[in-house]
User: What shape does this take?
Amino acid sequence: MKRSKIDRIAVLCSGGDSSGMNPCIRAVVRSAVYYGMEVQGVLRGYQGLMQGRFVPMDARSVSNILNRGGTMLKTSRCPAFRRKTGRRRAIKQLEAADIQGLVVIGGDGSFQGAYQLMQESGLKVVGIPGTIDNDVAGTDYTIGYDTAMNVATEALDKIRDTAASHDRIFFVEVMGREAGYLALQVAVAAGAEAVLIPEVPTDLDRLTDELRRGRERGKTSSVVVVAEGDDAGGALDIAKAVEERLQVRCRTTILGHLQRGGSPTTLERVNASRLGLAAVRELRKGNSGVMVGLIGEQIRVSPLGRAWKRKRPISRELLDLNEILAT
Assistant: This one.
């Protein structure tokens, strides 16, 4: 594992799936082949890594996956990998397969595991941010975010039609247990009357007053976007509280895993492909313990440790924008 030349690498997806992982896998595999490297795909993330579930990959093995959501390699959440004994099992499998470099596509939890694996094994590791939450430090974009945002926005547009037809207030819950970026972007894009996110304490009295004033100004329907990790509870609890305060009919829609799937957008396919190539180039240069990301339109490399130790801050500008435009 400590050879200077990297000629045999592996790629895996870890944590929640996100649309755009397949274009990224394709880019990793074909870039590695272009540079003369052998590639092994790891089935089912860290769980598969501990079990040695490697599959040889070449340019043809990733044909016709650009437009497919999810990940052809499958993914999983693996509590056992958080323990040193689990990582030792993975290291033995990597050594037996003669793998010198590993590309990990995932979020902060996945990167924490990758960082610990690197520290304990000497394996060269590069991370690619893949999560619909878009909350990873060191990048403006994470794989899956753009598709999830478009899926959720389309759903809100349809819900607004029903809300207007029935003069109702709809509370729509989107993913984001610890981060409200998806909820905030979707709220702005869909013209929501309010957005509730984990980063900002929820004031139910203020929310109720805003919805009441809207009705007094002539609004007969409203849409409120709720991130699933909001401190006041989920959309169901909040809708019930508002219904009691306003004495109006409220309805709730939970988008759930609908946001994870779907054919990746054009932007998703291009950006995921760029990051896949960038990761292979970092390994080829012998770099390790880094994450490739996008800042603006440029590929940027940052320490892997920063990605899981820090969260990308929420945009105050977007919060102000949604509040002003919702009046």
